[in-house]
Each structure stands twice: as structure tokens, then as C-alpha cells.
Amino acid sequence: MTSPIDLQIHSAFSNASRIVLVSHIRPDQDAIGSLLGLGAALEKAGKQVQMVLSDSIAVGMRFLEGADKVKHAAEEPFDLFVSLDCSDTKRLGNALPAGAMVDINIDHHLSNLNFGRINLVEPENVATSAVIAEHLTDWGLEIDPSVAAALLMGILGDSLGFRTSNTTAATLRLAADLIDYGINLSDIYTRTLVTRSFQAVKYWGMGLQNLSKKGRVIYTSLSLEDRKNAAYPGNDDADLINILSTVNNADVAIMFVEQGRDKVKVSWRAVPGIDISKLAVSFGGGGHPAASGAEITGSLSDVKEKVLSATINYLKKSDN
Ligand SMILES: [Mn+2]
């Protein structure tokens, strides 16, 4: 049965002809998959669509149809502004024009602030791409091979290849339905989760060299100098955090990535049973119980010290 929110989204899409879709800074597979997937479906319905990301799409994800159309800023005029996979408007970076309101907010972060006029937030869902895949037909839109490929990439990305604890039988059935559009699972899986650049692996090496452990917390950092020495083009951690989270006998992994003068991106991963998102929120960030992040002002060494002690205290408190 179509829910009241689906009806609202259906009529918002029907009444709009120029639609802006945006997703978050340092876009991951789910950000890009939901943007390109919903974008392709709306274009197929005859809408004029602007797909906007503050940062560039990583080279490995540019094989998807529509990736070359993504812009860095929305242009006026538009009738509808849609945010995808963002827990708050800060995560949109420069993609939200000054003074613009978010009409529709589609997401799966528990920490979502419901900042849209219409909010479709499903915290239990594995990916925003999965939320879109499940609701798309209720919005009067159609799935075709390019929509299916993009959404499948998003689901693969956020579920780390169907292995996060929120991956369910329904996730796999949904993915199977998308594969039925003629999508090559092995190809998307390899491009999305397996293949890496030489620079990314070299950059990992710099982070791994400084890997440290304090109690049940493991952590490391990547400085601007590491990035330069590895010639790594991104401003992220090249997914090194997901390698840290494979280390046994640790409850929490933390990754610190220097972003420029006095700004550090912090990512946390926690084992099931520990909700790290509240800690990220206390630092002005957000995310999921098992995977969260924040951007914190301060030098790399100051932020490291502050976050490390806060994390250790947080774990002590949640033990009680
Ligand atoms: Mn997501």
C-alpha cells in the first residue's frame, strides 16, 4: 500500500518540471548510486534534472551512466530540491544554494535531522539507494537498467558487499530484482568494492604504518603530507577505515584524515552492540550505530587526542 509520504513525494515529482538532486560531500557509492539512480528515473519521466555534488566522483565510479552530467552547484531556476543520503544540510557542502529550502529529504541515517519539507528516513534500511529502489514505483517512476545499476552500486557500497549486520533477506531480494534488469553483479561488485588505484594502496601503507591500539580501540591517521607523498587525489581515507575494522580484538576503529589547516575528518567503526553514532553527534557529526563520522576543527594531533580520550570514556560509560 502506498503510504502518505509516498503520495506526497509522488505529487511533488508530478508537479515539478525542474528538479535538483543533491548528495553529500566526499560522496560514497550510496550517495552516487542514489543520485544517479533517482536522476535517471526522473529524466526518463521527462523531468529536467540537475544532479549536484560538492565534491567530484571517484574515478572508479565514473563508469555509471550519467556520472559525467554531475555538477558542483545547482543553477536557478528549479521547482524542487531533493537531498539524498544526508543526515543534515551541512553534509551537502556547497551543493545547497544560499537560502534554498530542502523539499524532499530521503535518507537512512538514524541521526537524520528531518530538515526537509517531506522526510522519508528509514534508519533500519541498509542504504538510501535501497530506500529509493523500494519506493520508486510508488512515486510513479520506472526502473530501467541504468537506474538499477546505480541503485545496486549504492546497496553494495553501504552493505560492504552484503556483509553489514543490517543486510537482510529483503536486501538480497531487492538486489536480485535489480540484477534482473540485466545488471552484471560481478562487474559492479569488482569495480565498487575490489579494484583500487596504486595511489590508494600506497596511501593505505602510510596509514597502516602508524596503526596504534589503546585498550579495545585501534586508530591511525593520514596527514596532508601522506596524501601528497602517495599522490592520492581524494580528500578521504581511501576506505582504509574498512580495513581497520577487520582487526580482531578491537571494539572500535577510528580514522583521522587531515583536511587542511585546522580541520580533521574523523571516522568511527564499531562492532555490533556499540552505538558510536551518539559520540559522532557529540562532535557535530552523525551516522549509523556501526559507522559514523564528524568533521572537527583543530590540528591533527589535538583532534586525535581529544577524540581518542572521548571514545575511551564513551566505551567505559556504555560498559556500565
Ligand atoms: Mn548511505
Run of helices and strands: HEHEEEEHHHHHEEHHEEHEEH
Approximate helicity band: 25-40%
CATH-assigned homologous superfamily of the largest domain:
inorganic pyrophosphatase (n-terminal core)
CATH class of the largest domain, named Alpha Beta
Name every ligand kind in the structure: manganese (II) ion
- At CATH level 2, the architecture of the largest domain is Alpha-Beta Complex
Beta-strand segment tally? 11
Secondary structure tally, helices? 11
Q: Please state the average pLDDT score.
A: 94
- Might you state the CATH topology name of the largest domain? inorganic pyrophosphatase (n-terminal core)
Oligomer: single chain
The low-confidence parts are: none
CA gyration radius, whole angstroms: 19 Å
- Domain module tally: 2
Structural class: alpha/beta
Q: Span between N and C termini?
A: 43 Å
Largest sheet, spatial ordering of strands: 6-7-8-9-11-10
Largest sheet: 6 strands, mixed
Shape: globular
